[in-house]
Write the structure tokens for this entry.
Amino acid sequence: MDIGIFMFPTGDAIRPDELGAEVEARGFESLWFPEHTHIPTSRRTPFPGGGELPPEYSRSHDPFVALTAAAMSTSTIRLGTGICLIIERDTITTAKAVASLDVLSGGRFIFGIGGGWNREEMEHHGTDYPTRFAKLEEQVAAFKTIWTEDEAEFHGRHVDFDPIWSWPKPAQKPHPPIVLGGGTRYTRQRVVDHCDGWMPIGRDDEAVLRGIEDLRHRAERAGRAMDTISINVFGATPNREVLDRYAEAGVGRAVLLARPEGRDLVLPRLDRYATLLT
């Protein structure tokens, strides 16, 4: 099982390019950055993690810019969005950002996506909360069309454009892997129907393991082989026993959390996590 690192890349933390080099030097497989364009001050939507929303949610760099910086200081690690809130983004410009990063990184990008939780944030982008997943499904289909066809067009309820030319095309063929975040049965069905992988949060190990079995059943009913679906546990517990259980259950990647702090605090944490690589 591969082990990656996740961090909010803020202006107060170790730089993304420096973090990428340190993550790669220690032998980790991947580096992941999240996305929030902003956080509305109303705070009407409660934080799913409970308590006050951590300040890094409103202070992080754009993930594509930060991952490009990390790509330029590395050569082997995979680079992922964890997650990109595509429902708050323009479909055509996001397709170009993904393809550009994949080309510039030499085909190392993983496109982690999700529907999000903050109603006010979505509303500021003109996204309707109840229909966000219908939009997400159309966006995924439109992305694939833009990445694989020379003259791409798409006509849906939420995404609609006439034939376009858009290059570059991604370095990975047919496109970078698309992994969907979330923990519900609806998420797992969308993974089977539309995506290349599932990315649950490792807050509850038993729930993740039950979810893996549910994913297997859904894939079987759809006639899809499980070896075409990656399982990526996000925010996994940095414990050997837990990680071994995940590996036995078919998890291909565990992503460990690093707090958005300076080098003097982040590097010792990476060293502790590196002991789990052997």
User: Anything to note?
Assistant: Residues 2-277 form a domain with the TIM Barrel fold (CATH 3.20.20.30). DSSP finds nine helices and ten strands in the chain. The first strand starts at residue 2 and ends at 6.
